[in-house]
Automatic annotation (TrEMBL):
<protein>
    <submittedName>
        <fullName>NAD(P)-dependent oxidoreductase</fullName>
    </submittedName>
</protein>
<dbReference type="InterPro" id="IPR036291">
    <property type="entry name" value="NAD(P)-bd_dom_sf"/>
</dbReference>
<dbReference type="InterPro" id="IPR020904">
    <property type="entry name" value="Sc_DH/Rdtase_CS"/>
</dbReference>
<dbReference type="InterPro" id="IPR002347">
    <property type="entry name" value="SDR_fam"/>
</dbReference>
<dbReference type="Pfam" id="PF13561">
    <property type="entry name" value="adh_short_C2"/>
</dbReference>
<comment type="similarity">
    <text>Belongs to the short-chain dehydrogenases/reductases (SDR) family.</text>
</comment>
<keyword id="KW-0560">Oxidoreductase</keyword>
<dbReference type="GO" id="GO:0016491">
    <property type="term" value="F:oxidoreductase activity"/>
</dbReference>
């Protein structure tokens, strides 16, 4: 593989939307760094799948809720590939269904540390490598938001919705901050997507229960979100920055 081949790093890349982005990114010609927090088996399996299809990838462990892990993750990409051209802030969590008057401070701090602070710190490291101000050659960042940011997620997880609202604002602000430094920053807002995240929030049947209330009467797929992300990363979106693209089936 040529050292000039572009490099993509995806946080939370071993499963769900993140894995779909990694697969599609490899097909688009990127060398892919697959970040995972705990499930090494899933990350290794995805790397093997990409390699079997003729792509180049490696797995890199790191919890985006821990600053030292984030710094180490980007350093590992530096060592492996020597460049970074595209970055996706995908890692994030939901918690169990709860009202605001049932939430404790540990839940709120964990939610914001991973979903908001982690995204800021990851973007910081990406900008340090991409920005022409820092000697970089430019690049593209895509943040994964959620339709919950504009719907509020009442009676489910207002804290998650609020964290994704922060991502929307962060996307716009960072995009304008680095617009003259060769970096584009955009976001994708998925709606109800059929992935494991619902089970992690204690609602494994959520897609089945809610799909008839959706305008298209079905959930989206991880591949449909990945397609939007790869468009925003690509040169086809060269005049698009600070944009938030809904991939929510009209929800």
């Amino acid at each position: 593989m040529s050292r000039s081949q572009k490099v993509l790093l995806v946080t939370g890349g071993s499963r769900g939307i993140g894995a779909a982005i990694c697969r599609l990114g490899s097909k688009a010609g990127y060398r892919v760094a697959v970040n995972y927090a705990a499930n090494q088996d899933a990350a290794d399996a995805l790397v093997a799948e990409i390699q079997a299809a003729g792509g180049e990838a490696f797995a890199v462990k790191g919890d985006v809720g821990v600053e030292a892990d984030i710094v180490a993750m980007f350093a590992a990409v530096d060592r492996a590939y020597g460049r970074l051209d595209a970055f996706v802030n995908n890692a994030g969590i939901v918690d169990v269904k709860a009202r605001v008057d049932e939430m404790d401070v540990s839940r709120l701090e964990r939610m914001m540390r991973i979903n908001v602070v982690g995204s800021f710190l990851c973007a910081r490291e990406a900008v340090k490598r991409m920005s022409t101000r820092h000697g970089g050659e430019g690049g593209s960042i895509v943040n994964i938001s959620s339709a919950a940011a504009v719907l509020g997620a009442p009676d489910n997880y207002v804290d998650y919705a609020a964290s994704k609202g922060a991502i929307d604002t962060f996307t716009i602000g960072l995009a304008r901050e680095v617009a003259l430094e060769g970096i584009r920053v955009n976001a994708v807002r998925p709606g109800i997507i059929d992935t494991e995240i619902h089970a992690s929030g204690g609602q494994p049947d959520r897609v089945t229960l809610i799909q008839d209330t959706l305008p298209m009467k079905r959930a989206g797929t991880a591949d449909e979100v990945a397609g939007a992300v790869l468009y925003l990363l690509s040169d086809a979106a060269s005049y698009t920055t600070g944009a938030i693209l809904n991939v929510s089936g009209g929800r």
